[in-house]
Amino acid sequence: MTCYAYYPNPMKDKEKSEEFNRHSIDVVEYMFKDLASLTNAVINTISVRLGVSRDLVHDAVLLAGLLHDLGKVDKQYQEKPNHGFSNHEVLSTTAIRNIAFKLIKKDSTEGLFLDLLTLPILLHHYVQADPYKHIHYIISIKKERIDVYKDCIDQLNEVINYGLIHVQSDLGKKIMHELKNKLSKFEIEIFLDKELKNFLLSNVFYPHKPAIMAIAGLLNEADGTIAKMNRNIR
Q1: DSSP for 169-188, written as a single string
Q2: Which residues make Cβ contacts (< 8 Å) with residue 158, sequence separation at least 6?
């Protein structure tokens, strides 16, 4: 048994499965090693332009890469992975926001950190063109938590431990520790907060939207490249 980040289409013969922990860590490694100069430039620019500490911006980028597929550890995906992982990015986003929202200082730049971390995850399959889809999905399924599949526990712990080694801020460490604590109950609550809903549905320009899109671009590039490398049979 395993925990999948990808399960090949049975109609194709040139693909192989990819495990959750390998994909998650490989995406971060690609962002911070192969794309190091670009990733560092994005982090430094966002830090200066938004007045958020470099450590927080670094951790927003790192954890967005590391946890972008968190929703895939849910039983509904892992028990029938050949059905696909549709809408997993919504579960990932709302689960992480539920954890981080309780830890941030609402009257500080940590509020910006929350968006810099979670919104690129929501957008990492370029679904920003249809934000209503996400709101409808969250409301329609009446889902309150990710039910962690038992075979994903060890892999998710490996991903969390990797994060704990590489995060640079106290807040990043707190988020990782809290996620680890959730695993003892085999469930991670999801949460659609007012700020997320307003961001998705409002036509108002948010000053930090370009920063969010820059991080989403990095994540999409890494996610797509790693997927091709790990899933294709040469």
Answers
A1: SHHHHHHHHHHHHHHTTTEE
A2: 21, 25
Rounded CA separation 166/58 (Å): 10
pTM of the complete model: 0.91
- E strand spans, 113-192: 145-147, 187-189
Residue 1 lies in a domain: no
Contact 183, 157 (CB under 8 A): yes
What is the sign of the dihedral through the CA atoms of 119, 120, 124 and 128?
Answer: positive
Element (H, E) at 18: strand 18-19
pLDDT digit string (tens) for 167-212? 999 999 999 999 999 988 888 988 777 777 777 766 667 788 899 9
Per-residue pLDDT tens over the stretch 92-150 = 998 999 999 889 887 678 889 999 999 999 888 765 546 566 666 666 666 788 999 99
* Domain count across the chain: 1
In-domain check, residue 69: yes
CA distance 55 to 13: 44
CA distance 84 to 104: 33
Domain assignment present for residue 2? The answer is no
CATH code (residue 148): 1.10.3210.30
The full 3-state SS of 72-115, as one line of letters, equals: HHEHHHHCCHHHCCCCHHHHHHHHHHHHHHCCCCCCCCHHHHHH
